[in-house]
Amino acid sequence: MKNLKKLIDPNLDPIEIDQYMSQILREKFDSELALKYKAKLSNSYNVERTQQPGTNYTYIFLISALILLGGYLILKQMNTSALPNTDEYKLMALNFDEKNPFQANAVTRSSDGKEDALKLQAYVAFEDEKYKEASKALSSIVEKGKKDNFLLGYANFKMGEFAEARKSFSVVLSLGGDDTYISEARFYNVLSLFAEGRTSEAKIAMDALIAGSWESKQLVEIFKN
Amino acid sequence: MVIEMKMGKEDLFEHIFLSHFEKTMKFTRNKYKLSYEQAYDACMDSLLEFRRGLMEDKYTYGNLNYLFSKMAGQRFFKNVKKDNRFEAIPQDVVLPDQELFLDADEKIVLDRAWSKLGEGCRNLLKNYYYNNIKLTVLAEIEDRKPESLRKQKQRCLNTLRMNFQRIMKPINA
Question: Do the beta carbons of residue B50 and residue B71 sit within 8 Å?
């Protein structure tokens, strides 16, 4: 916030205020113009930033229709007419304030004494919200189950390691089932994508969630305007 | 065309230059051996600069499309310099000095503070600071006294700065 802070400094010289204002409004309106030009280039001149494989109008029409349909469904699901932009999604995801952090329940029941000790250490660290320590212990577990993979992803999420977190959530989701870890993994996977600024992928993942599910409701609650 | 642009009518400008966008991309790609995306970004950046130049009466005659293409080349090398991917930049290319001022969080604060301004203030500040229209000219267009417009501009500016403060306070708390 250093540049905006300068602008609100009561001792700032009027000439400098004018210079700052020109600069910030130039950035604001230039980026809005660029979006407008991109849309016009795409709609009226068929020029996209990503090169098209060939001029196949049927293909372009189908893709556009799918994008519009996807956008409509996301809009419908989020129950809002004005969606935030990528930066706003990112900020909201990063500011996500969890009232009740996920608990590990520090009980282990396996036949391997060494693995048990590691798991116990990880779960205790996890319950104490020492996510770095928990992540280290969880990473050392050779045979990680669904729970361990989820806890590892969650610990990485809490540390801001969103790409790493998504790898663990993917493992959880690949194991399948219909339990808490699956729901939680879906939820944190979308949140990690938004936090990374991968808004398009996040929206697609969000769109794929079952409407009315816990994870879907939670995300709508976070990202509603 | 420039007079119309200053009055907020940009249809003609957009029609002429967006219709030449792809041609300029091709020229820039061939001349500087750019990827499709690099050429697109360079042309988009230079289109915005070019529009600004027209609004500031920097270009009055000549082959504007050639100028647009030339600027796209310059813009590409500026982007390259920013990314620090290459070391060699041709001697004949003049790099415009333009660095981004606001980070992502500041852009959000700006958008919110701006949306809280009234329409009159938004138009006045945009015309003065972004479209570079002098207060005397704006006063003439709106049939008002320049002094009263100057006072309004100051009030709008103060309101915007107060909005920044209000929005930033909970973020920084």
Answer: yes
The answer to whether B12 contacts chain A (CB < 8 Å) is no
Helices (H), chain A: 2-7, 14-45, 57-78, 86-94, 113-127, 131-140, 146-158, 162-175, 180-196, 199-207, 214-223
Residues of B whose CB is below 8 A from A30: 48, 52
Structure tokens at A68: 């519009």
Give residues with Cβ within 8 angstroms of A167, minimum separation 6.
Answer: A153
CB A79 within 8 A of CB A224: yes
**Other C-beta atoms within 10 Å of B124: how many?**
22
In this complex, which of A24, A49, A87 lies closest to B101 when CB atoms are compared?
Answer: A24
- Supply the DSSP symbol for A208: T
Cβ-Cβ contacts under 8 Å, B154 against chain A: none
Query: pLDDT digits over A138-168, tens only?
Result: 998 888 888 899 999 999 998 889 999 999 9
Least confident interval from A5-19, A35-49, A59-73, B25-39 = A59-73
Q: What sign has the CA pseudo-torsion A56, A59, A61, A67?
A: negative
pLDDT at B51: 85
Contact partners, residue B139, CB within 8 Å, separation at least 6:
B145, B146, B148, B149
Please give the Cα distance from A91 to A24 (Å, whole number).
20
